[in-house]
Amino acid sequence: MKMVTPQSFTYKAGSRAVLLLHGYTGSTIHVRRLGRYLHEHGYTCHAPLYAGHGDVPELLLHTRPAAWWQSVVDGYDALQQQGYEEIAVAGVSLGGVFTLRLATLFPVKAVISMSAPVQEKSTANILQRVLDYARWYVSLETKDTAVMTERLERLAAEPLHELEQLRQLISSTAERLHRITAPALIMQGEQDDALYQNSARTIYEQIGSKHKQLKWYPASGHILPMDVEYAQVCTDIHQFLDTLDWKV
């Protein structure tokens, strides 16, 4: 069985735009349901697929974090080129980090950060994410245990230069949180790992926004827009966006 590669998507509605950013080793599937919900409530939504994502794990491991970041910037630019003057940004996991980073460099209407890691992560921890993704991906292609084991061992032996760059990108974003002044909604599942829960508190405490909220979801884990409380997550994001002072 071969996996169908996910794609970027755009749902056009009104003049209020939201850039949706998925997580590391994930794809736009992470935010598709949220995008459809916001679109139904009058928001234009665009979600770029990062370079190297949604395909074979070897491609992911060989694509530099700078290329993923460029996919985010290109997504922001695409909305601007289509005439959207006010752009809110919402992201989950690594997408949450990119959301925060974008807000330190570009004008954004608001920041919605879900399960973003801003505390120190080791390259070994990041590599494990790749291997977990690889195990899932390879299992779609073959049930041959020997083939799966050999491929995973090859991946585990790869140089970690790109993963070290990702770790540095996360750390440098954490150092810039005080620069963010846009209204911010920080969202975190209580069933997620402690690193992410502690990161949510850090973001809330250090972000420079005067208008900021920290919301917890007691039954949810890491990918909030796909977890058991996704309906409440979508509603909370919609209500937060509706409170903003949009031009139209």
How much of the sequence lies in strands comes to 5-15%
Total helical segments? 9
The coarse silhouette is globular
Overall strand count = 7
Assign the structural class, choosing from mainly alpha, mainly beta, alpha/beta, alpha+beta, or little secondary structure: alpha/beta
Poorly predicted runs of 5 or more residues: none
- Rg over CA atoms, rounded to whole Å, is 18 Å
Average predicted confidence as pLDDT: 88
Key attributes of the depicted protein:
248 residues, alpha/beta, seven-stranded mixed beta sheet, 47% helix, 14% strand, globular
Topology, please?
Layout (H helix, E strand, L loop, with lengths): L8 E3 L5 E5 L7 H12 L3 E4 L9 H5 L3 H17 L5 E6 L1 H12 L5 E4 L8 H19 L3 H12 L4 H14 L9 E6 L4 H13 L5 E6 L12 H13 L6
Parallel strand pairs: 2-3, 2-4, 4-5, 5-6, 6-7
Antiparallel strand pairs: 1-3
Helix pairs in contact: 5-6
Brief description of this entry?
This protein has helices at 29-40, 57-61, 65-81, 94-105, 123-141, 145-156, 161-174, 194-206, 230-242; strands at 9-11, 17-21, 44-47, 87-92, 111-114, 184-189, 212-217. With 248 residues, it is of the alpha/beta class. Strand 2, helix 1 and strand 3 form a beta-alpha-beta unit.
